């Protein structure tokens, strides 16, 4: 198990020193490199020696031995450390491998990832085996440990057990606990969650909050409980409030909260001109949001908004590494660090022309290189979804007196149902649709209505959701059943049926939750899905997040969960699920 505990074995460290002694040649020599030295806050010229995945020397000397060494003349480029995404949700249709590879093309070569899908879908042994496998891809992958399921789960105490949470916290690839989406439970006296926070702090690991709209007093209380950082500030004043309470603030620019430009304007208006306690996150955006980049796009926005150039790069590199206590591995170009290096054409353009990740070229002179690493997902429990149960017209009976209405992409509120749904079809003259959530195992369902999702959608089925359960939406029950049947045939995914025909399908080959396709392929599919839904009355910007958050109980006001229709503010189940 030592290979799990230590980044490099003793024999590797001896080899690294052998390079300096002239007994071995480095594998790559970056000669005449002008690089960003964060300690000096200057651009410095040096030679950089790389052996395997590690920088073994930075300075004016050249190696004594150059046998089979790749020599790269870096004149004309500026070198910066690989960017770090500190708050990644790597299962938003994409999977951790495809996300990491695509992100690395834009210079984001380290990701700190949410483990929620792994916690809910895999037994611990398989999850940890997958984490070990993902060490072999060029990107550097780290993880969080969740303390709650972000929804109301049946028998949650048997899922988030003390033993499993403790084992995740103890894993060396896990850098933090959280995010604390169930923080109201903590305030209400949940001592088990508080104990897990205490354990994380004992292990010198960070705690990530999730405090949208929190008052100053609430922020202070959560700091006292042990929270270290929060990514939910949406205005300059909210950033200042968090800084005043001692938080590190992760500035967000995501598919549902593209806030960075305005936040930076507002914090500058407030006189904030120190950036050491800031870093960036795209917060698990949908695939198409990343069409033009990752953390590099945020650096560019920061520079355009007047953040000093070195601070802008620091917010994507060394600030993150220092916060997570991994500065000895990441965040700067220095001896001993992992060889994650971006090659830029100029300091104001953070999109790299070449990228080294763990000492391997993933992009060279503008050309994206193919990933040779293979993850056998089926070996880790991510095989094709197989449903051994049927859905019929008896499952599409609706009698609930109220449904839920979409306020925006992710906020839903209750509303009184006024439509007549006795004949099986709904009119296209209004924006109410049937809504069904069915247990993935076929044991329970809940039937209601959703207002504001679409006005001309016949049948829609998705195995992609926060809980992994199945969502059906539509105006016509026959098309809803048809979409479900096709979704079942393709092994899980998202399907749209219209007037007895399938007009769209997105196969999610990995357990019906995530795709095995490359990011460019997935972006194309997602954009097609969004256009089809918008043509049928979807007026918001991100249907993927809408699907994800139908059951997510960390946002107001009413949610459809595995326990039933749930009132967030009053913390009560209004209507329980029905056993099938």
Would you kindly provide a written description of the structure presented here, covering whatever features stand out?
It is an enzyme of class 3 (hydrolase). It catalyses: adenine + H2O + H(+) = hypoxanthine + NH4(+). Keywords: Hydrolase. This protein is an alpha/beta fold and 580 residues long. The chain has two domains: 81-328, Metal-dependent hydrolases (TIM Barrel), CATH 3.20.20.140; 393-579, no CATH class. Helix content is 27%, strand content 26%. The protein has 18 helices and 29 strands. Strands 1, 2, 3, 4, 5, 14, 15, 16 and 17 form a nine-stranded mixed β-sheet that branches. Strands 18, 19, 20, 21, 22, 23, 24, 25 and 29 form a nine-stranded mixed β-sheet that branches. A five-stranded parallel β-sheet has the order 6-7-8-9-10. A hairpin with a 2-residue loop joins β24 and β25. α11 crosses α12. The protein starts with a helix and ends with a strand.
Span of the ends, CA to CA: 46 Å
Beta-strand fraction estimate: 25-35%
* Average residue pLDDT: 96
Radius of gyration: 25 Å
Q: Compute the number of strand runs.
A: 29
What's the short story on this structure?
The chain has 18 helices and 29 strands. With 580 residues, the protein is α/β, with parallel strands linked by helices. The chain folds into two domains: 81-328, Metal-dependent hydrolases (TIM Barrel), CATH 3.20.20; 393-579, no CATH class.
Give a quick set of tags describing it.
nine-stranded mixed beta sheet; adenine deaminase; Metal_Hydrolase; EC 3.5.4.2; alpha/beta; 2 domains; 29 strands; adenine deaminase activity; Metal-dep_hydrolase_composite
